[in-house]
Amino acid sequence: MRLISSGRHHATFDFGDLQVISLRDGYIDMPPTRLRDEDGCALDELPAAVPLAGDNLRLSVNAFYVTDGTRSVLIDTGASNVWHDPTMGLIYDALDEAGIDRADVTDVAITHRHEDHVSGLIAPDGAEAFPGLERVWIGAGDTSVFTGRLAPIRDRVVPVSEQVAINDWTTAIPTPGHTPGHTVYEVRSDAGHLLAWGDTVHVPTLQFEQPNVSWELDGDQSQARAARAALLERLTQPDHFVAGAHLDSPGIARVTPSGDGYALEYLAPQIG
């Protein structure tokens, strides 16, 4: 996988016969007290290697657009204006910057139901953000999110209850734990495998080195920990890459074993 262009809100990678475009929705600040040890308790001490923005952890929020030049899939959609936070909701700017026409988006794959991943289906003005939308793939355990503001999308929801191909080169893989319907999308090209995940990892400077550390908002922390362990081990195989919603933007990297945990090698400089 190779970076071929970038801007303030996007980065485009060559991935064999596919292109992968990272789209920056912004960032959110969260207190370190959300991190949990194996007993579900807040961490006694945060390692010095974990940077803080003031007193908070700063989490990037990324989405990913994958295309073979004819068909495409958008993985996650950002927060739109739901959080009313000026640091979020930039995905529409990112799409414009990357030269992607929102009307061309027919398939959206949602990693899970939380606001910073699914809310961008509806634009700040209340209109559907993707007027050509035909299908929204989401884990069956998370389909209850399509009420209220998201109700107009409900008729196009495709629940994912088992591993299923959503096109010739993308497969949905259920990975419950963070939410009941948390789903990872495996993208295959002649250059390898890309696993696009949502909230498998929140704090990359900590949870690769110490993958047993979980997150307060993991619905089932034990299940989320087991899913993370399996995915990290899978990513150590040759020609495997990760695209993470909360990895530092643009959020695409390699994973290698390191001591009792793993090391992360980003494939492009961070977008500030």
From TrEMBL:
Q: Which InterPro entries match?
A: MBL_superfamily_lactonases, Metallo-B-lactamas, RibonucZ/Hydroxyglut_hydro
Any idea where the Metallo-beta-lactamase domain is? 60-246
Keyword terms of this UniProt record: Hydrolase, Metal-binding, Zinc
Query: Gene3D superfamilies attached here?
Result: Ribonuclease Z/Hydroxyacylglutathione hydrolase-like
Give the protein family.
Answer: Belongs to the metallo-beta-lactamase superfamily.
Q: What is this protein called?
A: MBL fold metallo-hydrolase
Organism of provenance: Amycolatopsis thermalba
